[in-house]
Design goal:
With 285 residues, the chain is an alpha/beta fold. Helix content is 22%, strand content 23%. A seven-stranded mixed beta sheet has the order 6-5-4-3-2-1-14. A seven-stranded mixed beta sheet has the order 7-8-9-10-11-12-13. Helix 6 links the parallel strand 11 and strand 12. The N and C termini lie close together (5 Å).
Length: 285
């Protein structure tokens, strides 16, 4: 599978639009890998994971034609990951000659509910026109999503029914562990009973070097930092889900993190055996 990191920032991006902190000022000055749009990835040019407010810009920047897209997988309902207002432009007499007239949005029941909330009561016409389809996924169940098999697992996050995903295609397996906090014990227990062999694990690293389980009395419980990712990786390894070829990537960075600027964090990630993702990064697994 080919994985393209369209965006690698948290909700506010880097730089944050209204912030003058050293991290944001450095990003404005240096550009390139120091700047991050809201997190989303494209897999094999067929499956977009999350659809935030930067999707239009990210698609153009990646040279991707959204008229060729059929499936979007949503982790949770925060607007940096699910911002469906752009879908109004898929209506009849607004968009033409799409390869797939229906764009299917896959996620928990909360995603289907929030679709109508975001669309301010005007979302049904897109469903009736078959320009948008909503597919509800269930936790601990595997469903076909286009050419992929997707297993939905409950995430630790501050929304209704957030998911992390195991994504399989052509004998390769990705664990998309983002945007969330440390997994609950019940999820680790379920994983321990599976036979998954992970080729790529994409970790939430919102707070960079902060341990979100101990700092600020658990204030950051719904996100992770590298100390938490190291512990999670060790658990997955002990369960036999890691192989000697598994790739570990950290993404979804906030300017509020510790040592979060690209130049500061990238060597720390490499030292710990992770790849520090950046906007536009591509991996073949």
């Amino acid at each position: 599978m080919k994985v393209k990191f369209w965006g690698t920032g948290a909700a506010e991006g880097i730089p944050c639009g209204f912030c003058g902190c050293p991290v944001c000022q450095e990003a404005r000055k240096k550009g390139g890998r120091y700047q991050r749009t809201r997190a989303q990835v494209m897999i094999d040019d067929q499956l977009l994971v999350d659809m935030g407010p930067d999707t239009y810009v990210n698609a153009n920047r990646a040279g991707y034609d959204l008229s060729q897209l059929e499936h979007v997988l949503i982790t949770h309902s925060h607007c940096d990951h699910f911002y469906p207002n752009e879908l109004h432009n898929r209506q009849i007499e607004f968009s033409y000659d799409m390869k797939y007239p229906t764009l299917y949005i896959h996620g928990s029941q909360n995603i289907s509910d929030m679709y109508y909330t975001f669309m301010a009561g005007q979302g049904q016409y897109l469903i009736d026109q078959k320009r948008v389809g909503l597919n509800v996924l269930e936790e601990y169940k595997t469903q076909d999503v286009g050419a992929f098999k997707v297993t939905s697992l409950p995430a630790t996050h501050g929304t209704g029914k957030p998911f992390v995903y195991i994504i399989e295609k052509d004998g390769k397996t990705i664990f998309y562990l983002n945007d969330c906090g440390t997994l609950k014990d019940e999820v680790f227990e379920w994983l321990s009973k599976t036979n998954f062999k992970l080729d790529l694990v994409i970790y939430d690293c919102t707070h960079a070097m902060r341990n979100t389980l101990t700092d600020q009395e658990g204030k950051y419980w719904s996100h992770m930092g590298q100390p938490n990712n190291i512990v999670t990786r060790q658990k997955l390894t002990e369960m036999g889900l890691y192989t000697d070829k598994t790739i570990s990537v950290e993404t979804h960075f906030s300017h509020n993190g510790i040592s979060v600027g690209y130049g500061d964090f990238a060597p720390l990630a490499e030292k710990a055996g992770f790849i520090c993702a950046y906007d536009g990064m591509e991996l073949d697994i």
